TrEMBL record, chain A:
It is found in: Cell membrane. It is an enzyme of class 7 (translocase). The chain crosses the membrane at residues 6-24, 31-49, 55-79, 91-110, 137-158. It is a multi-pass membrane protein. It comes from the Bacteria. This is NADH-quinone oxidoreductase subunit J. One of its GO terms (cellular component) is plasma membrane. One of its GO terms (molecular function) is quinone binding. Keywords: Cell membrane, Membrane, NAD, Quinone, Transmembrane, Transmembrane helix. Pfam families: Oxidored_q3. NDH-1 shuttles electrons from NADH, via FMN and iron-sulfur (Fe-S) centers, to quinones in the respiratory chain. Couples the redox reaction to proton translocation (for every two electrons transferred, four hydrogen ions are translocated across the cytoplasmic membrane), and thus conserves the redox energy in a proton gradient. The lineage of its organism: Bacteria, Bacillati, Actinomycetota, Actinomycetes, Micromonosporales. It catalyses: a quinone + NADH + 5 H(+)(in) = a quinol + NAD(+) + 4 H(+)(out).
From TrEMBL, chain B:
It is found in: Endomembrane system; Membrane. The lineage of its organism: Bacteria, Bacillati, Actinomycetota, Actinomycetes, Micromonosporales. GO terms for biological process: ATP synthesis coupled electron transport; electron transport coupled proton transport. Residues 144-436 form the NADH:quinone oxidoreductase/Mrp antiporter transmembrane domain. The chain crosses the membrane at residues 6-24, 31-51, 94-114, 126-144, 150-167, 187-209, 229-252, 264-287, 293-315, 322-343, 349-370, 391-413, 428-449, 476-500. It comes from Micromonospora sediminimaris. This is NADH-quinone oxidoreductase subunit M. One of its GO terms (cellular component) is membrane. It holds the Pfam family Proton_antipo_M. Keywords: Membrane, Transmembrane, Transmembrane helix. The keyword Cell wall biogenesis/degradation does not apply.
Automatic annotation (TrEMBL), chain C:
This is NADH-quinone oxidoreductase subunit N. It is an enzyme of class 7 (translocase). One of its GO terms (cellular component) is endomembrane system. NDH-1 is composed of 14 different subunits. Subunits NuoA, H, J, K, L, M, N constitute the membrane sector of the complex. Its EC number is 7.1.1.-. InterPro entries: NADH-Q_OxRdtase_suN/2, ND/Mrp_TM. The keyword Cell membrane applies. PANTHER family: NADH DEHYDROGENASE. It comes from Micromonospora sediminimaris. Belongs to the complex I subunit 2 family.
Length: 178, 513, 490
């Protein structure tokens, strides 16, 4: 077992453990913070596997943006900072399903690969990734832009109930006069 | 397009266009007249199909397997090649009597609707629906393509449902409405159950043979034994629901009791024949090996239907319900004839079909007339009809006697020959079945005579006492052809058997091999 | 892009329909911003949808076009089938826009955003039909679905609507996760993501025996089965349909469902081994139609009835695919794919007509209401009632709804051609169960009205037009079903 293997195992353990804590904790804010740890550990694994760009993207977007946004949302909506007991249902079914799926997938993958050694490809730099995205996968990349745009507009529509209503009173009159 | 093709198409197109014209005519009475005219034209076209038939049969040779079905006229156009569906129509001696019977009964029903529209809806829609039903039935009889046959089989379903629910029953109170709807739904669901089995059966055949052409398929030469058994089981079940064969008959009494007079007439007169016709033409023709395999079962069920139908009739206390159950028994004779798979048996089935259509049509007309006048169908409230309405009572007696199979009237031939065919088939099973069927025939006589005794004799009940002896002109016009036909077919069965003899021989020729 | 080897020639003609759809979305947003007149916005969306449909038909009428290729594998394959899907989605958007007339006029709905989101969804549908690799496919499905989360939640102030949106969102995201996981595992097993390449790679027996492959395939199929609302992944559909505004429910049960079917067909046809998918899909199909029909029997709300019935219809759509494992005959397999697509085409047509009928018979902006609200509606509005009854009967698969009848015939035929007789019998029995509730709904339209004081409002002109067009098209393809069969088989 090399140092890289050990590091991967350790990071994996951290990721799984913190992920379990995200679901198990009764504190909303703590859940968010555990999520940071979990996503950070995953980023570390990417780094160990020499996928540097993906690792930094993971840190920037998930840890930096998504979780922070989540925490902001929690604070702005004045959610309780302390333990909130009503948040939890009984954990058994969830634990059973989660554990079962996780273990099952792990067993499957272990069975599929056993002790096969896979050579690490060359480092996943921005240049290599860019090549991939802009040569093989341009189409999904471009289509994703439509997805993001619609998500953006959709989020605005849902979060501001006043947009439709105020303008459509006028529209209504016009519609009738037509 | 030669004359024969033109006639075939017009037999379907005239009522279809007629239905559209009726729907488009704004005034109710004018629309009904348009419908009646369309039905009359259809009858003319259907009857003239017989012209030119000898040309096709002059080259007839029973040894020729490909010639098992020799239509007098046929038309074959591609429609949906992706589904093996061709617009293939044809007519021969097996289908022609039924085609004419259908056209005649529809005309009589439309004419009757000119005079009297059952309560519930407007007469225009009723006449349009009657014509659509006619298209479906005629199409079923004329289709020479399995998929097309299925298609027309399904066409009948919803219009008939609408007729039962929209114009049937008596009264508009919620309970009557509910009973009507339940009867309609039962009819629709049972019949659809039959048709979907038909669909599966049809495609079992089509997938194995690669064609849906009934002419090519008759004889079943290309199909393996397993396919034939599967196909025959599915098809026979499908037609057993429609015919209806015991124990799949339970939709029939409800539907008949609730349907309006014209609905009952069409239902009993020709709708049931789609099942028996399909059994002869499609199930037996396409899967003869399956038919031979299943014949004993079919025979036993047919005799069970005869006996059970008769016994139930003996205990019935409602007029229309009794006639409906009597249909179960009569169709049992028809099915027994088919089950023997002999020329005599199938001929008996064909003439039994026609006779039942004529006589039961008449019986339902009469029952409708009685019910319309007295507003009741209970036998206990109908005694003494002879005293106040002698003509009606006389006609009822005539129809009942015809129905019980008195020699010299139409009902005799089908029942007698079905029994004869069973005896001729030989063997312990068939002889037993023949004996039991004969007993069933005696029971038929018993319940019909009981019906006559209860209804015509005795002191007039309050409901009957108010009746006058008069019959409306429209009623006479509607009934007279049926009375005459019952006599004519009874005295000269060659009217039906003459045209059917050659094709039946050919069919039995390929089936028996 | 300094190295010329990385620059690929992009076939812009093949991409034209996608450009048109995406361009419609952007244009709608701009027109809404600059003109700020709802009619102009809607007109732009309508024009865009028409242009997309025409563009798809025009491009599809030529030879198959491939672009974004890496070696022999292409991410975008625009052939006859893709053109059919693209044109159909565009036309369905057009229909839904027509149905939205009363909703948009009633206020409370932001017109620009509504049209924009529909156009975005249309873009997803157009790309979906042509997707040649798993990534593009999943992204396209997401583009098709994501705008709908918002649209479903657009009935302001309605708790049901918000609940529907959240249910839909959560279920859909879980489904996408499943599909992605499956795709990732497939990549791990084979090293390929392009559908055709996966197909060749997975033909290898050694790979097929690996449990991981089976799980990966199952995950992909299960994720997509969520999108078509197949049992056991159907629970979201009725609540979501009922909570959504009526036109959006119409879109969900037509275009969105069509998208799921197309995605499923694409992976099953090109990528995944039929030996694995066949039995799974056969089971799913049988369960879907049976459960859907049985539950639909008990529904009392109009949209829930349509929702459960559309669950059942998804079962009929999937049924031909269930025969895949039983036959090794390539012709029978092709027929099965064609049958599934053909059924889907017949179905969306009739379903759109049914929704159009319901929208026309309900007050502007109202939800679907109870079935009893439609009692006697055909007596008040004979034409609209006849249209709705025709659509319902067609969905039940009976004449005069010949389109629906031929759809069922197509399915049964392909099943028997593929030696799956038992499934054909299941379909047959389900058709009978289906008739029970379709007939009840259709008969209710003609029942004597209980409430004589009900307001007789004229249906909006656009809605009536949509109903008329859908009915006429259904009538035409009812008499000439070969058109659809040819298109689906191309």
């Amino acid at each position: 077992m090399t140092g890289v293997d050990a590091l991967l195992l350790a990071l994996g353990a951290v990721a799984v453990g913190s992920a379990a804590l995200v679901v198990a904790t009764r504190h909303l804010v703590r859940a968010g913070l555990y999520l940071v740890v979990c996503l950070g550990a995953v980023a570390g694994m990417y780094l160990v596997l020499a996928a540097e760009l993906v690792a930094w993207v993971q840190v920037l977007i998930y840890v930096g943006a998504v979780v922070v946004l989540l925490l902001f949302a929690v604070m702005l909506t004045r959610a309780p900072i302390g333990a909130s007991d009503d948040l939890d249902r009984s954990g058994w079914p969830a634990a059973l399903i989660g554990g079962g799926v996780g273990l099952g997938l792990a067993a499957l993958l272990v069975d599929a690969y056993r002790w096969t050694t896979v050579e690490l490809p060359e480092a996943g730099t921005a240049e290599r990734l860019g090549e991939q995205v802009f040569s093989s996968w341009v189409l999904p990349f471009e289509v994703l832009s439509v997805l993001l745009l619609s998500a953006l507009v959709g989020a605005i529509v849902l979060s501001r109930p006043d947009i439709g209503a105020s303008r459509d009173d006028a529209a209504d009159d016009r519609g009738r006069s037509r | 397009m030669n004359v024969g093709e033109f006639l075939l198409v017009s037999v379907l197109a005239v009522p279809a266009l007629g239905a559209l014209a009726v729907a488009a005519t704004p005034r109710d009475r004018a629309a009904r007249i348009v419908g009646t005219v369309a039905a009359a034209l259809t009858l003319v076209a259907a009857a003239s199909l017989v012209a030119g038939r000898n040309a096709a049969w002059s080259t007839y040779a029973p040894q020729d397997a490909a010639g098992a079905v020799r239509p007098w006229h046929s038309i074959d156009l591609p429609w949906v090649p992706g589904l093996e569906l061709r617009f293939h129509l044809g007519v021969d001696g097996i289908s022609w009597p039924l085609v004419v019977l259908t056209a005649l009964l529809t005309l009589l029903c439309c004419g009757y609707s000119l005079w009297r529209v059952p309560g519930g809806g407007d007469g225009r829609a009723l006449v349009a629906l009657l014509l659509v039903v006619e298209v479906g039935i005629l199409g079923t009889f004329l289709a020479f393509d399995l998929v097309l046959f299925f298609l027309f089989f399904e066409v009948v379903l919803l219009p008939m449902y609408a007729i039962i629910v929209g114009w049937g029953g008596d009264g508009t109170d919620p309970a009557a409405l509910d009973a009507r709807r339940r009867a309609g739904r039962k009819f629709a669901l049972y019949t659809l159950f039959g048709s979907v089995l038909l669909l599966v059966g049809v495609y079992v055949v089509v997938a194995a043979a690669g064609t849906a052409d009934i002419v090519a398929l008759t004889g079943g030469t290309e199909l393996s034994r397993t396919t034939q058994l599967a196909a025959f089981t599915l098809l026979a079940l499908a037609f057993a629901v429609k015919s209806p064969l015991w124990p799949l008959h339970s939709w029939l009494p409800d539907a008949h009791t609730q349907a309006p007079t014209v609905g009952s007439v069409l239902l009993a007169g020709v709708l049931l024949k789609m099942g028996t016709y399909g059994l002869i033409r499609v199930a037996v023709g396409v899967a003869p090996e399956g038919a031979r395999w299943a014949a004993p079962v079919l025979g036993v069920l047919a005799v069970a239907a005869i006996l059970i139908g008769s016994l139930v009739c003996l205990a019935q206390s409602e007029l229309k319900r009794l006639i409906a159950y009597s249909s179960v028994g009569h169709m049992g004779f028809v099915l027994l004839g088919v089950a023997t798979l002999t020329a005599t048996g199938i001929q008996a089935a064909l003439i039994g079909n026609v006779a039942h259509g004529i006589i039961t049509g008449l019986l339902f007309f009469l029952a409708g007339a009685i019910k319309d006048r007295t507003h009741t169908g209970a036998l206990s409230e109908l005694s003494g009809l002879r005293e106040t309405a002698p003509r009606l009572s006389g006609l009822l007696a005539f129809a009942a006697v015809a129905s019980l199979g008195l020699p010299g009237l139409a009902g005799f031939w089908g029942e007698a020959f079905a029994v004869v065919a069973a005896v001729e088939s030989g063997g312990a099973l068939w002889t037993t079945l023949a004996v039991l069927a004969a007993i069933g025939g005696a029971l038929t006589a018993a319940y019909l005579l009981r019906l006559l005794r209860r209804v015509t004799h005795g002191e007039p009940s309050p409901a009957v006492a108010a009746l006058g002896p008069k019959l409306a002109g429209a009623e006479l016009v509607a009934w007279a052809p049926l009375v005459l036909l019952a006599l004519a077919v009874g005295l000269a069965p060659t009217l039906v058997l003459g045209v059917a003899e050659a094709p039946v021989e050919a069919l039995v020729g390929v089936v028996a091999r | 892009m300094s190295e010329p080897s990385l620059v690929q020639a992009v076939d812009h003609v093949a991409l034209l329909p996608a450009y048109l759809a995406a361009g419609t979305a952007v244009l709608v947003l701009l027109v809404d911003l600059l003109a700020a007149r709802p009619p102009a916005t809607v007109a732009t969306a309508v024009t865009g949808a028409v242009a997309t449909a025409v563009g798809a038909a025009a491009v599809g009428s030529g030879a198959e076009r491939r672009t974004f290729c890496v070696g022999a594998d292409c991410s975008y394959v625009f052939g006859g089938r893709a053109a059919l899907v693209a044109a159909l989605v565009a036309l369905l958007v057009l229909g839904v826009l027509a149905l939205s007339g009363p909703l948009l006029r009633a206020g409370n709905t932001p017109v620009g955003e509504y049209c924009f989101l529909l156009a975005c969804s249309m873009t997803g549908g157009v790309v979906l039909g042509a997707a040649g690799d798993l990534i593009t496919l999943i992204v396209a499905v997401e583009v098709l679905t994501l705008p709908l989360y918002v649209l479903v939640g657009l009935r302001r102030g309605s708790l049901a609507s918000a609940e529907a949106a959240v249910t839909f969102f959560v279920v859909s995201v879980v489904a996408t996760t499943l599909t992605l996981l499956g795709a990732a595992l497939l990549y791990a097993v084979t090293g390929g993501l392009h559908l055709e390449r996966l197909g060749t790679l997975l033909a290898d027996e050694a790979l097929l025996d690996l449990p991981l492959t089976t799980v990966a395939v199952t995950l992909v199929v299960a994720g997509l089965a969520f999108k078509v609302a197949a049992v056991p992944f159907h629970a979201w559909a009725p609540a979501t349909y009922d909570g959504a505004p009526l036109p959006v429910a119409a879109y969900l049960s037509t275009a969105s469902k069509l998208g799921g079917v197309v995605a499923l067909l694409a992976v099953v046809r090109q990528a995944l081994p039929p030996e694995v998918t066949g039995p799974v899909l056969a089971l799913v199909a049988a369960l879907t139609m049976t459960v859907g029909n049985l539950v639909a029997l008990r529904q009392r709300r109009t949209v829930r009835l349509l929702a459960w019935s559309s669950v059942a219809q998804a079962g009929y759509i999937l049924a031909p695919l269930g025969a895949l494992a039983l036959t090794t005959d390539a012709e029978a397999r092709t027929a099965a794919y064609a049958a599934a697509l053909a059924y889907a085409v017949f179905f969306v047509l009739l379903e759109l007509a049914a929704f159009a009928g319901v929208v026309a018979l309900r007050p502007a902006g109202a939800d679907g209401g109870r079935l009893d609200d439609l009692r006697g509606a055909a007596r008040r509005h004979p034409w609209v009632g006849a249209g709705l009854a025709f659509a319902l009967i067609g969905l039940a698969g009976l004449p005069p709804g010949l389109a629906g009848l031929f759809a069922k015939v197509t399915v049964v035929r392909s099943l028997l051609g593929g030696d799956a007789g038992w499934l054909a019998l299941v379909v047959a029995v389900n058709a009978v169960i289906g008739l029970a509730y379709y007939l009840r709904a259709a008969a209710l339209l003609y029942a004597p009205p209980g409430d004589l004081t009900a307001r007789v409002a004229r249906p909006a002109r656009a809605v009536a037009a949509a109903l008329a067009v859908a009915t006429v098209v259904a009538l035409v393809v009812g008499f000439a079903p070969q058109v659809v069969l040819d298109l689906a088989g191309s």
